[in-house]
Design goal:
CATH topology of the largest domain: Aspartate Aminotransferase, domain 2
Number of domains: 2
Oligomer: single chain
CATH class of the largest domain: Alpha Beta
Mean pLDDT: 97
Strand order of the largest sheet: 1-9-8-5-4-2-3
CATH architecture of the largest domain: 3-Layer(aba) Sandwich
CATH superfamily of the largest domain: Type I PLP-dependent aspartate aminotransferase-like (Major domain)
Number of strands: 15
Largest sheet: 7 strands, mixed
Low-confidence stretches: none
Distance between the termini: 27 Å
Radius of gyration: 21 Å
Number of helices: 12
Length: 377
Amino acid sequence: MKDIRMVDLSGQYEKIKPEVDAALAEVINSTAFINGPAVKNFQANLEKYLGVKHVIPCANGTDALQVSLMALGLKPGDEVITTTFTFIATAEVIALLNLTPVLVDVEIDSFNISIDAIRKAITPKTKAIIPVHLFGQSAPMDEIMELAREFNIAVVEDACQSIGAGYTGKDGIYRKTGAIGHMGCTSFFPSKNLGAYGDGGAVFTQDDELAEKLRMIVNHGMKVRYYHDEIGVNSRLDSMQAAILDIKLRHLDEYANARRKAADFYDNAFRDCSKLITPYRYEKSDHVFHQYTLLAKGFDRAKLIEHLNNKGVPAMIYYPVPLHQQKAYLDPRYKDGDFPNSEYLSKNVFSLPMHTELDNEQLKHITDSVLEFINAL
């Protein structure tokens, strides 16, 4: 049996090696390393895949979130609602722009942001909502967009874990995550479902005016060279990463199907195990399983992870500390117990290997190792 990894990028690379190597050689030979043809080709192909008018590439997913908020023209003290159960970047950019992060709880089953919690958190200062499509499954976008329209609030989707996932709205139209709100953001960090071989990110929008502003912001606020109309940043996707991403984009649906197949194997293996709750699958969303995250019931997950490691099976905890309990984000508005679902999840979730290269032998060893520990309890 091959060694089991949380993410097997080398195995994935071997399957597309000739395409990647040829694309990189083309970029090197062209010497168009910044904003070259490879970036423009990838941008156009991603626009087509997502069904959006505009993709604005940038340097990473955190920058994508930051420039999206900058494009909204928010002022210090304006409030932005997001989930407390997510990676730190979602709240980090809010704080960096001197905006006020307003954290809310998640649903216990889907791990995604709670609609009731959003509604209760809205004030006259609320200017934006950042829903996170956590672990590869869409947040309830119909309800989020209804709230946005009711209160005239912008929606910036954090689709950094969900690229390729879709959502069928009440209107019966299927849309990709990131293409539903006013803007959507993604990360091309190597371990993502669509990952570069370095850093990268992008913002998506259907809005022409926002797109023009975003393009200026990521390029020092310039529309015409050396004429700076906005306060901007330097945030670009380089041509080599774009060339790699363009190749991997052709395989993205294939990669999603491989992840779902692995998730189905896990689900079937754990179906009758009362000590584990398998990932919720929202009927409106096709989960792309950036992570396969289980909820432990009534046992010490640390001991399970130790057992798995002894069996050659890696496991991770996403996320061990919710944002409101992070030292950098402690806030007198929040105290322990205010977000019971997020606090419970942070103490009880764990994630098993999930990537495109898992085979049945590996999956059986992983699930057998988990069940061996649980059956011995």
